[in-house]
Amino acid sequence: MTAPVQIDVRTETHAYPVHVGAGLVDQLGTLVSAAGSTGRRFVISSPPIWKLHGAAVERALDGAEAIMMPDGEQAKTLHTVARLYDALIRAGGDRGATVIGVGGGVVGDVAGFAAATFLRGVRLVHVPSTLLAQVDSAVGGKVGVNHELGKNLIGAFHQPIAVVADPLLLATLPRREFRSGLYEVVKYGVIASRELFERVERDLAAIFDRKPAVLVPVIAESCRIKADVVAQDERESGLRRTLNFGHTVGHAIEAVSRYQRYAHGEAVAYGMLAAAQLAAARGLFPGSDRAALAELIAKLGPLPSVSDLSAAAVCKAIRRDKKVLDGRLHMILPVRLGATVTVNDVAEDEIRSALRSIGIRGK
Ligand SMILES: NC(=O)c1ccc[n+]([C@@H]2O[C@H](COP(=O)([O-])OP(=O)(O)OC[C@H]3O[C@@H](n4cnc5c(N)ncnc54)[C@H](O)[C@@H]3O)[C@@H](O)[C@H]2O)c1
Ligand SMILES: [Zn+2]
C-alpha cells in the first residue's frame, strides 16, 4: 500500500493539512481530532454518496450525526443551506461543532458555506469523494452556492481545518465524472508541472484503473499546486487566476449549452485546447507542447461535439464572464508545459480563430 501524503496549506490566516491516502477514511476520527475538532461532529452528505460510503464514514466517526442534503448541482442553493441550518439548530449544534462534508464539489461547497455562516463560522473538514473535489474544490477555502441568475454568485472564503482525500472513494465514481476531474489534473500539469503532465501520460491506464498507488501522487501533486497558488493569493487577486487556465472558453461553452451537455472538465478540455491554439498563434507556446496537450486530451476519451455551438454566443458568454475587467479580456496562456503567462489584450478575432480550431464554426 502506498504511504499517505500530507500537504500543508498555508494562507495568511490559516494552516491546515491535506491528507491524501488510500484507506484514510477509516482514520477519519483520528484525523479530525488531530486537526483540533473537539466538539460535536455533523457529517453532511447526499443520499447516493452516503449509500456507498456512509457506513465506512460512520464507523470511523463514532458518534457523528449525519445530515443529508439533496444531490447534484441543482441542490447548490441557499434553500439547501437553509435546510442545513434547520438541522444544525434542531440538533443543538454550537460554536464548538465541526461540519464534515462528505461528497463531491457540490456537497463541499454547500456544507462549507453552511459551516462558514452558521453561528458566524464553525470548523469544517472536507472529505472529497470525486476526483474533481479531491484535486480542486476541497482545497483553497472557496465555498458557496448558485443563484438563479448565475453560478457561484453567493459565497465566502472559509478554510477547512483539514482535508481527507481517499482515492478508494473514487472506485465507485462514474467514469465520466472521473474523467471530468482528470482534465483538471491535466490543467495543473500545463500551468505548473511538466512532470505531473508526463506522469498522467505515462500512467494513464493505471489511473483509469483507479489504482491507489498511481492516484495518490497524482492527487497529492495537484493539491500541492493548488495549495501553492492559494497560499500566495488566498483571495484571488492575481496569481490564483492561473487556475483559470482553460476556463475562459470552458465556462462559456458550459453557459451556452446551459450546463447540460458537457461535464465541467470536458468544457475545460476544450478551453485548454483553445487557449493553446491562441498561445501558439502568438508564438508563445511551442508546437510540440501543443501537440502533446492535444494528444493527451484525445487519449482521455471522446469529448461531446461542439460543432453546433454558435461562435457568437460563445464570445458573448466570454464577455459576460467576470474575467473581462474594464472591457479587456484577461486570459491565461501556456508558454510551455508547466508555465503560463497572463495576457490582458486578447482580441475577439483571436478568440474566434481559437474557437474555430476546436470546431466551433457556427455563426
Ligand atoms: N470551491 C471551489 O474552489 C470549487 C472548485 C471547482 C469546482 N467547484 C464546484 O464543484 C462542483 C462540481 O463538483 P463535482 O464535479 O464533484 O460534482 P458533484 O458534487 O455534483 O458530484 C458529481 C456526482 O458524483 C456523485 N458522486 C460523488 N462522489 C461519488 C462517489 N465516490 N461514487 C459515486 N458517485 C459519487 C454525486 O452524487 C454526483 O451525482 C460545482 O458546483 C463547482 O462549482 C468548486
Ligand atoms: Zn474547473
CATH topology group of the largest domain = Rossmann fold
Q: In CATH, what is the class of the largest domain? A: Alpha Beta
**Number of H- or I-type helical stretches:** 13
Total beta strands:
13
What can you see in these coordinates?
With 363 residues, this protein is α/β, with parallel strands linked by helices. The protein has 2 domains: 5-172, Rossmann fold, CATH 3.40.50.1970; 245-357, Dehydroquinate synthase-like, alpha domain (Up-down Bundle). The chain is 47% helix and 18% strand. It is built from 13 helices and 13 strands. The strands form 4 sheets. Strands 1-2-9-6-5-3-4 form a 7-stranded mixed sheet, with helices on both faces. It starts with a strand and ends in a 6-residue tail after the last helix. The model has no long low-confidence stretch (mean pLDDT 95). The site of nicotinamide-adenine-dinucleotide has 28 residues, from α2, α4 and α5.
Please sum up the structure shown.
It is built from 13 helices and 13 strands.
Q: Key features?
A:
single chain; 363 residues; alpha/beta; Rossmann fold; Dehydroquinate synthase-like, alpha domain; 2 domains; seven-stranded mixed β-sheet; two-stranded antiparallel sheet; 13 helices; 13 strands; 18% strand; binds nicotinamide-adenine-dinucleotide; binds zinc ion
